[in-house]
Design goal:
Length: 469
């Protein structure tokens, strides 16, 4: 393995400032071979000369005939220029919306006009993962990979399978844990034809195995340890800023699982600031589910900080040892964030430093109530996504977020990803409620919209409509 510093325009670089080893973009790595830390994609901005203003990106709206100008990822190619135009892969990702929602804003405790929902469920496979997959596939094409794999709680595999099916660039292999994947997501992977390997274990086990297998067989790994994937996810923030007329909001609130999104967002803002495109960064709130709260425990309770890269990460190792010793497994209805060993922990700590961040944890009850409110506002999302709204609500109640501040909550995945959770919340079937939600400590469905049962008779139907309509 060559560890020569490269002078290419784009390269990979270890995130540990004391190591800072660099590697060419045509090497396939998921960790620094010297020190084991994570890698960034880095750029020689002086020689690349990116645009000095945002106007360039707005002008691309006029080029609707060019798929790369239409892509919500590649419209910003100049801000993630690791591959030439000819190798870029798009299936039309990133056509997402930033919308003000006053009903959800009122639930969160914000004044009208302040709460924005970034609806990433509108992506081709129904989650934000497509932003990262477009970038990872472009890199895979650059280096000529033939097979790609991931471990997944569902959405990464759905996205990988879709990109494989549409582009025919690679054979997709997905690793899932037993029992935890929602049918909405599993059905996508199966339908799109990916090789699906179900291992006896949870997500953290699947992640460990896929890393080993990918290394052994030389299969391209598309989990968020892949630094190119995070480049694609930076564009979620570019689109948020674009929708706000390039005005930086006060807060970005995002659910935290493997911490790829939060890491990518921090990098996006650090780069925009370094390039002089923005003059301040928003604050970042990362929201864990209480049943998978490693980041919250380490950051808020044990005081773990990035400290410019000089952090002593021993507390993380101790914590993982405790989890093993007590046989504690991640457990939450928000399956997309049911992760106890977030692979991007170090990068997320860096992002929290960049954006003066906070971390909160929310209960199953809070997640489901927030999800129902998001739905009632007309934006269906899956449970993990609603953690952002539940977390924002908590932060407003604490006074950390002011009622007048502009807050952007990321709705990471579509409602139809996990209909079981939705139906169990609204059901009149007490057994279904108890089995699915009651067993998780959810005691009530405060915002349930229950079906009304009537006989197969006109008078009963008319009476029900008169009563409830
Ligand atoms: C992957 C995923 C998350 C977690 O994102 P990370 O980048 O791993 O923190 C949250 N919500 C949904 C819907 C996801 O698919
Ligand atoms: Zn290193």
């Amino acid at each position: 393995m060559s560890v020569l510093a490269r002078t290419d325009l784009a390269f990979q670089r270890c995130i540990d400032p004391a190591c800072a080893a660099t590697y060419s973009v045509d090497e396939v790595l998921t960790a620094c071979p010297v020190c084991g830390n994570l890698l960034d994609v880095a750029y020689d901005w002086d020689r690349l000369r990116p645009p000095g203003s945002f106007e360039v990106f707005e002008r691309k709206w006029l080029q609707r005939g060019d798929p790369l100008a239409v892509s919500g990822v590649w419209r910003f190619h100049e801000l993630l220029p690791f591959a030439p135009r000819e190798t870029l892969v798009t299936v039309g990702e990133g056509q997402t919306l930033l919308s003000v929602s006053d009903p959800v804003g009122a639930f969160v405790g914000l004044r009208p006009g302040r709460l924005h929902l970034q609806y990433e469920g509108l992506n081709p496979s129904g989650s934000f993962k497509d932003n990262g997959m477009a970038a990872a596939f472009s890199h895979a094409r650059l280096i000529g990979a033939r097979r790609a794999a991931c471990a997944s709680t569902g959405n990464t595999s759905a996205s990988l399978a879709l990109y494989c099916a549409v582009t025919r660039l690679m054979r997709g292999i997905i690793f899932i844990g037993s029992g935890k994947i929602s049918y909405g997501k599993l059905s996508q992977a199966l339908d799109y034809g990916a090789l699906t390997i179900q291992i006896a274990g949870d997500f953290d086990d699947a992640m460990a195995r896929v890393k080993e297998v990918a290394g052994k067989l030389g299969i391209y790994l598309v989990n968020s340890v892949n630094p190119f994937r995070l480049e694609g996810q930076k564009t979620i923030m570019f689109r948020v800023l674009e929708s706000l007329g390039w005005d930086v909001p006060e807060w970005i609130v995002v659910p935290g699982g493997n911490l790829g999104n939060s890491s990518a967002f921090g990098k996006a803002f650090a780069e925009l600031r370094a390039l002089g495109l923005i003059d301040r960064v928003p604050r970042l709130a990362v929201i864990n589910a209480a049943g998978a709260n490693t980041l919250h425990e380490l950051y808020e309770r044990r005081g773990l900080r990035w400290l410019g890269g000089r952090a002593d990460l021993a507390p993380a190792c101790h914590y993982y040892d405790e989890l093993d010793r007590d046989r504690r497994r991640a457990d939450t209805i928000a399956s997309a964030i049911e992760i106890n060993r977030p692979v991007n922990l170090n990068k997320c700590l860096r992002a929290l430093e960049t954006c003066d961040g906070v971390v909160r944890q929310v209960s199953e009850q809070e997640i489901l109530d927030a999800k129902a409110q998001v739905g009632a506002g007309g934006f269906g999302c899956e449970p993990a996504s609603a953690a952002s709204v539940a977390g924002a609500r908590q932060l407003v109640a604490e006074g950390v977020i002011g009622r007048d501040e502009r807050v952007v909550c990321i709705l990471t995945g579509h409602q139809l990803k996990d209909p079981t959770a939705t139906v169990a919340y609204h059901t009149t079937d007490q057994k279904l409620f108890n089995d699915t939600l009651g067993s998780r400590g959810v005691s009530r469905a405060s915002f349930a919209n229950r079906a009304v049962s009537v006989g197969n008779r006109i008078d009963e139907i008319v009476q029900a409509i008169d009563l409830y309509g």
